[in-house]
Design goal:
The protein is an all-alpha fold. The protein is 73% helix and 0% strand. The longest helix has 37 residues.
């Protein structure tokens, strides 16, 4: 039975990854994800159904467009494979239940946002704001399902309480980052944290809670700083001066840290707190 569930999760993940590729390509440019149909970004030729099968078509076409023979970006198969792996991982980790489905959506959208920010330095509201709302809704529905055996009154009370906690976690995270954003602009006289980063952090906090959000933020800051230092080392001091300040897609690191904490945030936090008995 588990094999069937894994196969279904794999196929669902591939399809979801293919859809998210469309979102990544179009939403930062404020384009419709419905019209026009899938087409080659180089020659604009419409992609036939046989050439639109996740991963399989990329391999059969050897990574090139059938019409213009230009290379297809590796981002497309990467996102499809990564979302499929995350979907299977969530089903194995949480099970084929509400939690598994919910965290699949969370991880998939976070991956899409990570790629969006890395490619365009943008985090579309059409992804971050629904993710925020779904986080609060998931916390509420999880409370309702968890207490449903005790009666409707307990279930609704738990749903209201946990949904409110999710909203408070999101609001507190957003306010904290807005304060940091204001302080940075006051000291450096330029913007540091973007509003898209604030919305993304609020969405992650709505899903994972304020405590795990501390782990997310720590990991994002550390990995972002190390990546920036590595890029600066490669660019060299003279090149860095001529090209100006290095722009780091902080949302990418926030989103990847959020994916990590969706799986291992709890154990990581417990491991850290074990040093303070």
């Amino acid at each position: 039975m588990l094999t069937i569930e894994i196969v279904f999760a794999l196929l669902f993940g591939l399809a979801l990854g293919s859809f998210l590729n469309v979102c990544i390509s179009r939403l930062p440019r404020h384009q419709s994800i419905v019209q026009p149909p899938s087409h080659c970004p180089r020659c604009s030729a419409r992609i036939a159904a046989r050439d639109n099968i996740p991963l399989v078509s990329f391999l059969l076409l050897r990574g090139r467009c059938r019409n213009c023979h230009k290379r297809i970006a590796w981002r497309y198969p990467f996102v499809e494979a990564a979302v499929a792996a995350l979907t299977v991982g969530n089903i194995l980790f949480a099970g084929p239940n509400l939690e598994g489905v919910a965290y699949t959506i969370l991880c998939a959208v976070l991956l899409a946002l990570a790629v969006c920010d890395a490619e365009t330095m943008q985090l579309p509201d059409t992804l971050t704001l629904p993710l925020l709302g779904l986080g609060i809704l998931y916390r509420a529905s999880d409370g309702f399902v968890g207490e449903s055996h005790r009666g409707a009154a307990y279930a609704w009370h738990s749903a209201l309480l946990l949904g409110l906690r999710g909203a408070i976690s999101a609001a507190a995270t957003a306010l904290a980052l807005l304060l940091l954003r204001w302080l940075y602009s006051l000291v450096r006289h330029r913007q540091g944290i973007g509003l898209g980063d604030v919305k993304l952090a609020a969405a992650i906090a709505a899903w994972l809670g304020a405590r795990q959000m501390c782990v997310v933020f720590f990991l994002a800051v550390v990995t972002g700083a190390l990546t920036a230092l590595a890029v600066l080392a490669v660019r060299g001091r003279k090149t860095a001066k001529s090209e100006g300040p290095l722009a780091v897609p902080f949302g990418t690191f926030l989103a990847l840290a959020g994916i990590y904490c969706a799986f291992l945030g709890g154990p990581t936090l417990q491991w850290y707190l074990s040093f303070f008995p």
